[in-house]
Amino acid sequence: MMEIQKAAELCFPQLLNSSCRKPTLHWSKAVLLNIVLSCISLITAALNLLVIISVSHFRKLHTPSNILLLSLAVSDFLVGLLLMPLEIFRNTACWVLGDVMCSVYWYLTSNITCASIGNIVLISVDRYVAICDPLHYPTRITLAKVKLSVCLCWFFSIFYWSLYLKDILVEPGRYNSCYGECVLIINDIAGIVDLALSFIVPVTVIIVLYMRVFVVAVSQARAMRSHVTSVTLQCSLNQANKSELKAARTLGVLVVVFLACYCPFYCYSLVDKNVVNDSSASFVVLVFYFNSCLNPLIYALFYPWFRKAIRCVITLLIFKHDSSEVNII
Hints:
Elements: H1 2-8, H2 27-57, H3 64-92, H4 98-132, H5 137-140, H6 143-164, H7 166-170, H8 188-226, H9 231-239, H10 242-271, H11 282-302, H12 304-314
Helix pairs in contact: 2-3, 2-11, 2-12, 3-4, 3-6, 3-11, 4-6, 4-8, 4-10, 8-10, 10-11, 11-12
Protein name: G-protein coupled receptors family 1 profile domain-containing protein
Membrane topology: Multi-pass membrane protein
Domain G-protein coupled receptors family 1 profile: 47-299
């Protein structure tokens, strides 16, 4: 009787000595959690798909800043489409997809999140140049340079994590202690390197650039209110106009929300180096992923062009002849 009960608690009852135990979450809580998180996953994928379609379709939106938003939306879309469902499945059920899919999951997770971080850094650089050096912005931040930067960002992410995760790519499931498990073990040295490259360096760059942007934006706003007539300042104000300042504020909100969702995960990793395998810490992982759902909501709240583009997509106006030439801005 005890053996039958023990077998019922295992992921693979036929493998008594090597099977993992099933998650202990009550079935009603598991169902509710799956429904809520699945809805968030679908909303995340749908909203970011709207961003991708909008920026890709309308020519007026093919600006350097929007190309960066497009790249960020691609990574956010993949989070909603792939990472959220797999993370939900990994924490609420036995992993039955095999060792190869486990390695693919960790590889995709690492690549997509790394690309998101890179995109946020590029957005910070774009706003820094636009606000702090507006006269040289058109020559320094061109469409070609931004596209190249985005490609390099994704390439670096793929290259870096291919080296970092080469062990599980060569030998899938090497860190799994039993069947029905999907874990990733990171040694101390690799963890320190990842903490520096994936958290400390990019976050420091983002904060420093946006502090500079904030200081310049405040000084320009004061100058506008006091009607300063200095030729140099007026020239600067003409270039860094209200739309640029508004874009900086909007993307500033995006960056702040990103850091608010991103920092808890790495702060927790300082306490628990294997945070990705700790089921009790799955909340901070999902909070990090939830940022991908918030980004398009920020666009909808602050960008009129995004709301117009959504209406065009939903009403199928994008299929009309020359709809891509419509002045959506």
